[in-house]
Prior knowledge:
Layout: H1 5-8, H2 17-26, H3 31-38, H4 42-50, H5 57-67, E1 80-82, E2 85-87, E3 93-94, H6 96-99, H7 102-128, H8 136-139, H9 152-159
Antiparallel strand pairs: 1-2, 2-3
Helix pairs in contact: 2-5, 3-4
Amino acid sequence: MARSRAAVRTRRCWIDPQDFRQTRLAARLTVDQAAALLFVSSRTVRYWEAGRARIPYAAFKLLKVLRGHGLPGEAWAGWTVTQEALWSPAGHRFLPGELEWLSLVFRQAQAFRVVYRKLRRLQRHGASEGHLSPSPTDRREAPPLPRRAGGEEAEAQAEAGGVALRSR
């Protein structure tokens, strides 16, 4: 059944002009700064605050977010935005430059989980069949690291073809 146009309309929320003005002042924004931030004219902001025009809820909510109120939605509970940073509920600060790389970090973590699961699956199934048991060459010990030598010991080691590290 098709919905009528009236049923599709969203509910309008009335914003009190004084609440909008107080929120703007609490965010330490002038009328001109608020207008630039909201991509409207200064006259529009003055009309909103005078009650001569309806204030869009999005404009009011954006000012509240900039004031330090939480972000909208349950998924963002406890998160806040202040000046140039996003703050987590645990108190961690995220700057814009750090957030640019966040998607890469998530993709790397996802790739690691996939590879780790495959490795665990191979170890579980392959080790029981003997496929992943170490070969004799894997069991060899690595050659010992050269000892720190100085003076005569270093010369003797160099003559024998070893590597000598000079001590300071």
